[in-house]
Structure formats: structure tokens, C-alpha cells
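Notebook entry, structure prediction.
Reason for the run: the old model in the group folder had no record of what sequence produced it. Starting over properly, with the input documented here first.
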Amino acid sequence: MKRILLSSVAVFAFAAMAHADELTDIQAQSKQLREQNQLLMKRLSDLEKRQQKLEKQPAQAQAARNVNPTDAMAADLPYKAVVKAPPPVNDDICWKGVCVYGAFDMGVGYQQHGSPYSPFSANPNSYMIQKQSFGSYFGVTGNAMSVSFIGLRGKQEIADGLYGIFNVQAAFNPASGMGDNGIASVAQNNGLNTALSAQNSYGDSSRNGQMFATAAYFGIDSPTYGAFTMGRQSNLIRDNVINYDPIGGAQAFSLLGAQGANAGGGATENAILDNAYKYAVGVGPVRLAALVALRNGNNSGVGNVFSGDIGFDYMGWSIDFAGAKTYDAIVIGAPLTAAQVAAAPIAGLATGMGQINPTVSDNTVFQVGTKYTIGPWKVYGGYEWIKYQNPNNPLAAGNLDQGFVIANPNNTNYTVNKILQTAWVGAKYAITRDLDIYGGYWHEWQNNFASTAANVGFCATNPVQGTQCAGSLDAVSLVVDWRFAKHIDLYAGVMWLQVKDGLANGYTAASTNNANVFVPGQSNKASSYDPTIGLRYQF
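New structure, fully documented this time:
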């Protein structure tokens, strides 16, 4: 009996050991299958993501072709979803989150009243009639549809849901290869006031010889909490001009692009700002943004700038309300006269850096822009109100503006506030996927801000002979844009522009075909048109 009991115990022990071994094997096999299943699920997820990316590439490629890179600087900011750059597609020039992008824009054109091509200016032709526009011009044109530039931008994940971003853009004149330098284009004509026909095209600008004239900023971006950026970046007013102008601020075909003051809240130099801090966030259909640009001592005449924006998107409709306050805004209206150039060295001013003759003001601006998309149509509209006042902090001769010496500042031009208003409407129609037609109308007007009874009476009888007299400006344009190949489009268009009364000051009969005889009590005006055709390469 004892032997039988021992044998039973031994058999049970061996059976238990066998069962334990089998259980261990099953557990190991189960673990292995679970690991394999996890790998397969991850592989399946990766394949599905890749499939979705490949399916979206045709639409993304088309979107990339349709993006106007004039203001790619705003593309990273969530409050401007309507101008957000498309994600990289298979032919973008990118490496580890850093992309090279840009545009070249050049062609030929005719200005009814023009002046020679400028090698310096971002607006190298007299697309907008100027005081030195003697006779007609036919020849090379540049930056008619958008500013030529080369840029680098990057976006890298630095934490879960948090990205580091940067953007730099170097703008240039496509015909000369020179970096854009609006102030240099003005200073180049110093001393030629007695021979206006010898002057080149010129214009004050926010791009004044900087290596990265259009953008040089970096920051952090969160899909939830918004983006904060620092450096040289676009004014919020300029963002809206490009977004809500019917032709995207094209310099040859839009008043807002041709004169630039609207983008800078009354002063072109304020369209793109140094020392700027910008925060932007989107909350559902609402977009909010704020910007502060700080004074840079004596290295730049531009003072502090404060700007804000609120926008909404709903069912194809977008609208933005923006406002800004600028201190010591600088407008360089004309080159120095020969007498002023001769007197500057006597006044102890440096001559090697170039001299300018600015009007200084403190500006307040309110702006509203809207657009509506329905099928192949996009309809645009906007209004901007700008008040100019004498500066609280007058600038003295010898101060610097973008590296140029301020020679004869006018700090008292707005004893009576100047009110400049601009309104516009327009539309874009997609004839086909690759062929668009644009049209727009702009109207601008200023009040009579003459400060003395004598000047007020003078404006009543000689409205065109005083820059402080009331006046108006009208512009109409039509453009056709054909994207006939990947990255390349062919455009053709024309803008007709007319200045009247106070805004026609200095436009003499020699520079227009109008009679322009100053008849007391009657309006006087000057006009021009600029048919232009060109190619634009975007990448």
C-alpha cells in the first residue's frame, strides 16, 4: 500500500511539472503573438497614414501652385488660416523640416506716363503715376504681380504639440539682382529737382537694403495656444491688405500694392517692422492677433508701433477688423533739392550714407477687410481710415532712418489732422483650374488739412497746387493669370489710375497729357495706364 501511494505521488508530481511547462510555453507564445500583433497594427497605421498622404498630394500640389508667395511670412500664423502655406509636397525643396522657397517675377510693359527703371526699388517702375513721369516708357518691368525673393522657413517639433518656427526672406530686384532698397531709390535722385525728366522711378519702402528685407523672425507655435514670433515681421495691417486686396497687393495692378502706405497704416516704411513681437491664436472660427514693435534708438527714425486684429471665418466668408497706432512714422515724399544737398555738409550732416527729406507724423489707423468665396468666385471689399498728426516726439536733423541721414525733417505738416480714406471692391473668377481673371476698383480721398486761413483760401481757388488741399485718387484694373505649367504662370493686365486736386500736386502738364491748366475753382487731374505682361516662377 505504501509503495502504491508513493507511485501515485510521483506520477502526480511529473504531471504537474508537465502542466507547468505547457502553461509556460502557452504564455510565451501568447506574449509573442501580442508583440507581433502590435507590430502589425503599427505597420498598418503607418501604411494608412502614407496612403492618406499620397491621396492628398494632388490637391496639395494644386494648392501650392495657387499660393501667392508675396507674403509667405504670414503663412505660419494660425489666425491667418486663409493664407496658410500648404504642407510640403513631393517636389518642395525641403530637408529635415527646413524648406527653400521663393519667387521670380519679371516681364515687359508700357506706362503712358513713366520714368526710367530703378535698379534699387522693390517697385522699380512707375506703375503709379509720379511727378517725374515725363513721357511714355516701354521696356523691362519687374515685381509686377509679386515681389521677387528667396526664403528659408522651418518648423520642427520641439515638444509634444509644440513647434519651433523661423522664416527669413531676402527680396531683390529681378532685373538688376540688387536687394530691394526703397530709400536708396529716393536718395539716388537727390539734387535733380530742377530736371525731373532725369529722375528714375523711386518710392519709399519698408525694404531698405536689409539682408532679409521681407522677413527675419523666429518663435514657437502651438495648434492649441497659438504662435509667438519675434524679429522683423509684417504689420497686421499689411497682412490684411494682402489677404483682402482683390489682386493680392500686386504692385502693377493694385493701388494698395503700388503706393504701399495703406499696408503701413499711412507710412510705407511701417509695412514691415523691426524689433517686432507678434502673438496670434485661433479659437474656433475666431482669429486674434496683437503686435508690438519697439523703437530702436537713433538707428531708425520709426517709433513704437502697437497693432491688433480680430477676424472671423464662417461658411466661405472671412472678415478682419484691425487697428494700429504708430509714433514717428516717416514718409519720404521726394528727393532733396539741389539747394538742400549743397547745404547739408554745412549743417554738419554726414554725406557718405545718403540723405533724406522726410515728413514725420503720429498715425492712427482703422481697417476692415472682407471676402466671400462661392464656387469659382471670390468677392473682396475693404475700407481703411488713417489719421495723421504732428509727432509728439519730433525728429531732429542728423537722426538716422534705416541707415540714411535725416536732413530736413518736417515735423509740423499736420497742425490740422490729415484724414486719408481708402475703399475698394473687387473679384476673382476661376475660369478653369489653371486660369483666373481678377478685377478691382480703389478710391482714395483726403480732407483739406491746410492750417492757416490763407492756405484754406488758397486751396479753394487753387486746389491742385497744395499738398494740404483736399483731393482724390481712383484706380481700376483687370488681370488674367494662367498657370500653364507647374510652378510657372503667365499674367497680363492693366491698371488705369487718376490723381485729382491736392493728390495731383506736382503733376505738371509736362508729365501728363492733360491740359492741367490751374483754373481757380475747378478740379485738376492727371492720369496714366500701364499694360504689363510677365512670367512668374514660384517654388
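Summary: The chain has two domains: 1-63, 67-538.
The old model has been moved to the deprecated folder.
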